[in-house]
Here is the input.
Amino acid sequence: MSLSGILERIWYPREGHLSLSARALAIPELAFRAATSVRNSLYDRGLLRSVRVAGARVISVGNLTVGGSGKTPAVIHLATLLSAAGCRVFVLSRGYGRRNRSTVIFRAADAPSWEDAGDEPLLIARRCPGVTLMVGADRAALALEATRRGAEIILLDDGFQHRRLHRDLDLLVVDGAVGFGNGRLLPRGPLREPLSNLRRAGLIWLVESANQSPPSFEMPVVRVRVRPTALLDASGAEAPFESLRGRRVIALAAIARPQRFIATLESLGAEVVERRLLPDHAPLTPQHFAAPDGTLLITTEKDFARLPPGASPVARLRVEAEILDGEPVLRAALGL
Here is the structure.
C-alpha cells in the first residue's frame, strides 16, 4: 500500500477510533500544532499584517483538511456565477504540481502547458474562458497586480491558510462524506489547523454525501452536491451517459481520495474492471494508458489536463457543483 493509502486509513478510520499508527504520530502532531498556533496568533494579534488590496473583493476558497474536498468545482462555480453577473474575475493559485516556478498569467485562449500552470489552474481556465488565471508563489503580489489589471473579484484558490493576503470572505469547503476525519492535525490526522479556527470562515460550502450525516455549523451553510454533467471522448465530443451502462472501464486517477470518482462511474452503470489510482498530481506516463480492446479508459478532467502529447485515447468525466440549498445566502455573501 502507498504512503498516501496508509495515511488515509489512519486519518479516516472506519470504526472511529485512533489506531496505534496514529498514536505514534502524536509528537509530530504536537510540533505541527505549535507552529500553526504561533503563526495564527501572530496574525490575530496584528504582529503579522495581511496585505490589503484596493478596488477588488478578495474571496478565499479553502478548507481545513488536506486534499480532495471539492475546492476546484467550488472555484469554477463561483467564477462562472460572478462572471455571468458582469464581474471581472481573477483566480489566484499556487499551481501545485507544476514544474515551472515563474509567475504565469493567462486565459483559456492563451493557456500554457500544465507544466507551466498546473493542472487545476488549467482546468479552471478551460471551464471559465472569461476568467484570468494568475499562478505564482506570492499571491499577495499577484493580487496587487490583478487590481492593476482591473480585477473586481479575486478568487484565492486554496487560501484559508494563506493569511498574508487579506480577504473579504472566507468560504470553507467541507466534504460531508469524510468530514474532518479523526479530528487530528497533520501528520496524525488530515487537519491543517485546529477545528476551533472554523470561526474564521464566513460561509461553509458543504459537499453533501448520501451515505453520511453532515456536520453542523454555527455559520451560514450552502449545501451542494458534485454531480457528473458530461462524458467527453478524446476529441472533446460529448457521449451519452447511457453508453457507460454495462461497459467495461478502467478508471485512471491521480487525485486525492478518488473514491467519489469510482462511485460516480459505477452509479452510471459502468463496470470498473481496473482502478489505476496514483498519488495526487502524480505524473502520467504512456504505460498508464494501455487498455485492452473493448475496454474504455476514463479519467478525471483534472488528470486529463496533464495527459502527455501522443497519449492513447482517453475519455474524461466532467463534474459540476450544484446548489441544493442556500443560493440566496451565497449570492448575498458574494455581493450579488
Summary: The CA atoms of residues 75 and 267 lie 25 Å apart. The two ends are 47 Å apart (CA to CA). The chain has a mean pLDDT of 93.
